[in-house]
Amino acid sequence: MKIVISFFIFLSFISAENIRVATAANVSYAINELKDVFIKENPKIKVDVILGSSGKLTAQILHGAPYDIFLSANMKYPNKLKEESIAITEPIIYAKGGLVILTRKDDINLSKGIEVVKDVKRIAIANYKTAPYGKASVEALKNAKLLKIAKPKFINAENISQSVQYTITATDIGFIAKSAMFSDKMKKYKNWVEVDKNLYKPIEQGLVILKHAKDKNSAKVFYDFLLSSKAKEIFKKYGYIVEIKD
After folding, report:
1. Tens digit of pLDDT for each residue in 156-201?
2. Does residue 103 sit in the same domain as residue 195?
3. What is each CA distance from 78 to 82, 107, 192, 218, 231, in whole angstroms?
4. 108 neighbors 120 (Cβ within 8 angstroms)
5. 111 and 134, same domain (yes or no)
6. Are 124 and 99 in contact (CB under 8 A)?
7. What pTM value is reported for the model?
8. Whose CB has fewer CB within 10 Å in the chain, the N or C terminal residue?
9. Residues 73 and 163 in one domain
C-alpha cells in the first residue's frame, strides 16, 4: 500500500511544472490576482514571477535568463526578442496602460493636470531611456510644451514601481502607471489625476512565449489564460484598457 501511495505522489510531482514569468513592473499590482485565479484552475502548475523594468528583463533574456513568458510594458522589447528568434510567438497586445499624476500632499492642486509641474520642485519619473512609462511621461510633457520646465526637477526611478515609491515618500508629484492606483496599498491616496490621453499614446503592452518554454505545455496554458476574458476582466479592474469580446 505504501508503495502504491508513493508511486502516485511521485506521478503527481513529475506532472507538476514550474513556469517563470518575466513581468514588467507596472503589472506587479495585477499579477498576484492573475496568478491566484489561474492556479485555482491549474493547481499543478506553479507560476514564478520575476519583476523588473522591461528593458532590464529583455537584457536578461538576451543573455540567457531561463524565463518562459514575458509580459512587457510595451511592444518594442517583445518585437526585439522575436527578431532575435528568442520569442517563439508573435508579440501580441494583452492590455494598454495609462498614466496618472499622483501626490501624497493635500496642498498640491492637481485640477490643472499636467500643468502642475510648474508649481512643484521634485517629480518622480521612471527611467525614460528604458522604462516605457517613463518614455510616455516624457512624451506627454514634450507635447504639453513643459519638458524644459520639468526635466531639471526629475527624480529618476529605475522602473515604474520605484517611481511609485519615490512619489509616496520623497517627491512632490510623480508620473506613475494608472494600474498602481487600484492596488490595496495605494487606495488610501486620493489626490491623483489622469494625464490627458491626447498628450501620449496609450502604452501597448506586449506578450510573448520565449524559446525556453518551447517544450512546456504549461507555459502555453498560462499564455492562453492571459489572453482570456477572465484575465482581461482582471486587467480592466486594475485600470488597463482591454478589448473583451462577448
Report:
1. 998 888 999 999 999 999 999 999 998 888 989 999 999 999 999 9
2. yes
3. 6, 41, 31, 20, 20
4. yes
5. yes
6. no
7. 0.82
8. C
9. no
Q: Are residues 14 and 91 in the same domain?
A: yes
C-alpha cell at 128: 525614460
Q: Domain of 130: which CATH number?
A: 3.40.190.10
pLDDT at 84 over 50: yes
The answer to whether residues 105 and 194 belong to one domain is: yes
Number of Cβ atoms within 10 Å of the Cβ of 48? 12
Measured CA to CA, the distance from residue 90 to residue 188 in angstroms comes to 39
Exposure string for 130-158, b = 16+ CB within 10 A, e = fewer? bbbbbbbbbbbbeebebbeebeebbbbbb
- Residue 173 buriedness (CB in 10 A; 0-12 / 13-18 / 19+): buried
Domain that holds residue 209: 2-96+203-237
Which is higher by pLDDT, 16 or 56? 56
**In which residue are the cell numbers 502604452 written?**
203
Q: Which of 224, 216, 212 is nearest to 92 (CA)?
A: 224
pLDDT tier, 9 (very low <50, low <70, confident <90, very high otherwise): very low
Residues in the chain: 246
CA–CA distance, 37 with 238 (Å, rounded to integer)? 15
Query: What does the pLDDT look like over 96-142, one tens digit per residue?
Result: 999 999 999 999 999 999 999 999 999 999 999 888 899 999 999 99
Does a structural domain hold residue 62?
Answer: yes
Bridge partners, 47 (sequence order): 19
CA dihedral 151, 152, 158, 163 (to 10 degrees): -80
d(CA 243, CA 246): 10
